[in-house]
Amino acid sequence: MHICHIVFRFDIGGLENGIVNILNCLPSAGYQHSILCLSDYNPEFFGRIQADGVTIHTLNKAPGKDIGYLKRLYDLLRELRPDIVHTRNLNTLECQAIAWLAGVPVRIHGEHGWDSEAARTRRKPALIRKLFSPFISRYVALSAETERYLTERVGISPKRIERICNGVDISRFQPRRPATQAPLAEETWVIGSIGRLAKVKNHQLLIRAFAQLLDKAGSRSDRLRLTIVGDGPCRQQLVAQVKSLNIEARVSLPGASENIPDVMSSLSLYVQPSFAEGISNTILESMASGLAVISTDVGGARELVEPGFNGEITANDNVEELTEALWQYIEDPQRLRVQGTNSRFRAEQNFSLATMAERYHRLYQGQSAAAIRNRRHDHNFGRT
Question: Which backbone phi and psi does 156 adopt, to 5 degrees?
């Protein structure tokens, strides 16, 4: 079965990392994969794919309204003749029409979440999704929120939607300490967040809450550190914020890292302060690493974090609530150990890569079989 995965750019990111995991975990003997990039790709990131025979193609779409790439896409699909096209998010949606014109029998579209609340609530994106819906065989929603969006805002029948959450490599991400060891036995306690330094990730909120936590902790503040791992357009703004709060000695912004498991193993608590998320890969990775998680109440956070069991949920962009949630762990460090153990259990039971891959395998096989049945029916109908 030949599947073409269409993305805007294949580079470091949660959506793209999900594709890598799918390709690496599906049965290699049963699949051939091609990645089609509307713009370009990162060769080093492409190197993370371990599956055999995966090809990657670029359509070199120019910025703005470049429709010439659609002809190149059509020609490429006619050449590759895939069984399935799988697009992701709004910026690849128009490729569904081209796949239909090119005669691709199965056309799947995934919705992974939004970069802002405005992107979720604006009317125009919902209308565009409705316009292209007749070309789509099946939808994949990564969270209950995106499933509700498709049914309630776009008007897609629930029967056409499959909800498949991301998975995490539970063998690669491991708890660093035995379950019986208290998490605050170390001299230093590290609060951490990992992600692109962009406005939507709202690391400014975490820095403000950490500054308030230091004031509240008094003498215990000597043991507290904050590290925000990643790079992006907001880096200088965050550096300036840390300096203005006079907490440079307690806050680290080391840049991007190629070894996230090691970063996770250095943390005592994980915080996701985003304005918007889908199903966060870094929350899943922190759970597999045996960490309690604090997340803002966005996207699929509540599908991953059960308040009081493996972490806490705070209101979006509310510094007082986030500070209080952090303080509760300072007051009762035992909660970190218990909730961290629960996080690992939850990741193992519900969010393993094997579980995710099996769901995609059933989706691809089922849709392909349905397409074959439809072709046979149409052929028989034509003969009669």
Answer: -85, 135
List of residues 6+ apart from 204 with CB closer than 8 A: 234, 237, 238, 241
- 160 burial via Cβ count (<10 Å: 0-12, 13-18, 19+): middle
The CB density around residue 186, as the number of other CB atoms within 10 Å, is: 12
Domains observed in the chain: 2-167+352-383 (3.40.50.2000), 189-350 (3.40.50.2000)
Q: In sequence order, which residues have a C-beta less than 8 Å from that of residue 224 and are 6 or more positions away?
A: 188, 189, 191, 210, 213, 214, 217, 250, 330
Rounded to the nearest 10 degrees, the angle between the axes of helix 14-25 and helix 281-288 is 60
- Contact call for residues 42 and 12 (beta carbons, < 8 A): yes
Report field, pTM of the whole predicted structure over 0.85? no
Closest CA to 273 of 222, 208, 211: 208
R_g (Cα) of the chain, nearest Å: 22
- Whether 180 shows a pLDDT value over 50: the answer reads no
| Widest pairwise Cα distance in the chain | 86
Residue corresponding to tokens 């659609």: 70
59-82 pLDDT tens trace? 999 988 888 999 999 999 999 999
How many CA atoms, within 13 angstroms, populate the side-chain half-sphere of residue 75?
A: 8
Asked whether the beta carbons of 136 and 111 are under 8 A apart, the reply is no
